[in-house]
Amino acid sequence: MPITLPKAPTPKKNDLRSLTVLLHGGKKIGKSSFCAGMPNVVFAATEPGLGQLEVHQVPIQSWQDFIDFGNALVEEKHNFQTVVIDTINNLYSFACRAVCEKHKVEYVGDFKAIGKGHVLANNLFYETMLKLANLPFGVWMVAHSVEKEIETRTEKYLKAVPQLPDKASGQILGMADLILYADLHEERDENDKPRFRRVLRTKPSKYFEAGDRSGLLPTIIDLDYGKFAEAYTTAVATPKDTQPQSAVGARQPAAPKTGDEKPPTGQKSPAAAQGK
Fold it and tell me: Per residue, what are the HEC states of 73-138?
């Protein structure tokens, strides 16, 4: 296909169904339940765990299963608008296994050339994910979180990151329009007793991986797809000149904590508190 230069700018991705999103968090916090609230969604289920959810799902037990699933999305008639890969961790392991089977080795580290197996697996994984992301569907990649120790010249701390090798993680983070971290948010009731609610964190933090390319989403949103869709539509999809303006001089509520504050001594970090 010949390349031609564009005649107009590419429009912004304002439709939720056009986004590529990475959603990660501790086990059992509600990531799959959140995605089950999406309209016209189909799950590529790479691991058990959807038994309590009434959703359209295709069991994925190998890399070839995933390729066949992608072909079916293109070739069959259907009404699906969003694809959820649950989980991206397992899908990456299928890519590693496919590389090993093709080259007749047991592990990706068994190649004679040091690092070759990982390069082949990463390339297979990333190229296939790019093809899926370029299809006219929303793509949500669900991942478990792990705690990674970060060491700087002055401190050490734990950061909740997607459970993927560094190279593959970097590739997925780079292609995602949104990186959402599912977490527990602590609040105080009228008696000053702590209570927790499940939320999505959208802004970068030293203690967890998150990010919002638009920069317009609230810092935290309840872990509920309906509320997330409402927040996204209000903040991103609605033209700025039609959004309600705050009264001049009106006092604005304090911004919620983003998670950058260091956890108090003896308190578990966010991922650990969820019972990973």
Answer: HHHCCCCCCEEEEECHHHHHHHHHHHHHHHHCCCCHHHCCCCCHHHHHHHHHHHHHHHHHHCCCCE
